[in-house]
Amino acid sequence: MEAKILDGKAIAATMKGEIVAEVASFKEKHGWVPGIAVVQVGADPASSRYVKQIGKSFEEAGMNFRLETRDESTTQDEIVKLVQSLNQDKAVNGIIVQMPLPKQISQDAIASAIAPGKDVDGINPINAGYLLAGAGEFFAPATPSGGMEILHRGGIEIAGKRAVIVGRSNIVGKPMAMLLLHENATVTICHSRTKDLPGVAREADIVVAAIGKARMITADYIKPGASIIDFGINVVDGKVVGDVDFDAVKEVAGAITPVPGGTGPMTNIVLMRNTLRAANKAARV
Ligand code: NDP
């Protein structure tokens, strides 16, 4: 039987509707609207496309969007000062600094400069620490949070299930592992040095791919009926494909996210939801 398609695009559209309604009632209650500031250093075309998408999503939801662009040669000190001024700015509830940054700017220094309460993509080490501890109020990175939302809204059971995550980056693989662990999955994190990856993956009820290698996860990695979350974004012959060999895997899996239209559309939605959450907190104090 063919797998159920976990339609991220449809889930994102539903969530956007919920956010639009929440923003409208927020505005009515408080007289202002939540907003995000995006810092972009340099003009990488892929980054510019992504930033444009964020702006469109926020504006469509009735939220404020501010873009701060700086030249490729800007110093770390200047970006830290910019972030600090955004931390103080009451009109800004969420802050994102587009990665990668030019080599003169340390990613860690910038991540640490973002106020944890405005760090809506969960890159500040304080948020990462809270995520690890699974305690307190924190922001988890938006991409894996979107993957979790797909599992929840797709009706995929997590507690007690075996989850195998392929990829251990700080922005996708590791936080996804923590989020699944906090929901009581039994989690295995795999990477380029894992031995017998297909064998390990075949033990999983939930397989998460966060690798960056086009169609690497083939049908022989998958236990029949397993649920597949594919974060991969790879361009092959001008076409965007995931890390999972979708056509073959959908014949074996129980549920699967397509690429495009799976995890991709969820990231902006989570950024909006997190910005709204930060604004709600700011409105309370
Ligand atoms: P990274 O390059 O930071 O990490 C890739 C991970 O995959 C590493 O842990 C690496 O292992 C592992 N890996 C690489 N090759 C293999 C292999 N042959 N076997 C097993 N593991 C392997 O990537 P990201 O986490 O940043 O991104 C992963 C994918 O997700 C990319 O396609 C990216 O474009 C996409 N992405 C999607 C987003 C979305 O909104 N949907 C947002 C962010 C990223 P090791 O650590 O040993 O090197």
- Quickly give the CATH architecture of the largest domain: 3-Layer(aba) Sandwich
If you compute it from the alpha carbons, what radius of gyration comes out, rounded to the nearest whole angstrom?
19 Å
| CA-based shape | globular
β-strand amount: 15-25%
Continuous helix count: 10
What is the CATH homology-level superfamily of the largest domain?
A: NAD(P)-binding Rossmann-like Domain
Mean pLDDT level: 97
Tally of extended strands? 11
Descriptive notes:
- The structure is a single chain.
- This protein has 285 residues and is of the alpha/beta class.
- It has two domains: 31-116, 3-Layer(aba) Sandwich (Rossmann fold), CATH 3.40.50.10860; 142-256, 3-Layer(aba) Sandwich (Rossmann fold).
- The chain is built from ten helices and eleven strands.
- It has helices at 8-30, 45-60, 76-88, 107-113, 125-133, 142-153, 173-182, 197-201, 246-249, 264-284, and strands spanning 4-5, 35-41, 64-70, 94-97, 162-166, 186-190, 206-209, 227-230, 234-236, 239-241, 255-256.
- A six-stranded parallel beta sheet has the order 1-11-8-7-5-6.
- Helix 6 crosses helix 7 (173-182) and helix 6 packs across helix 10 (264-284).
- The model has no long low-confidence stretch (mean pLDDT 97).
- The structure holds NADPH dihydro-nicotinamide-adenine-dinucleotide phosphate (NDP).
- NADPH dihydro-nicotinamide-adenine-dinucleotide phosphate binds next to helix 10.
- NADPH dihydro-nicotinamide-adenine-dinucleotide phosphate (NDP) is lined by residues 143, 166-169, 171-173, 190-194, 197, 210-213, 231-234, 263-264, 267.
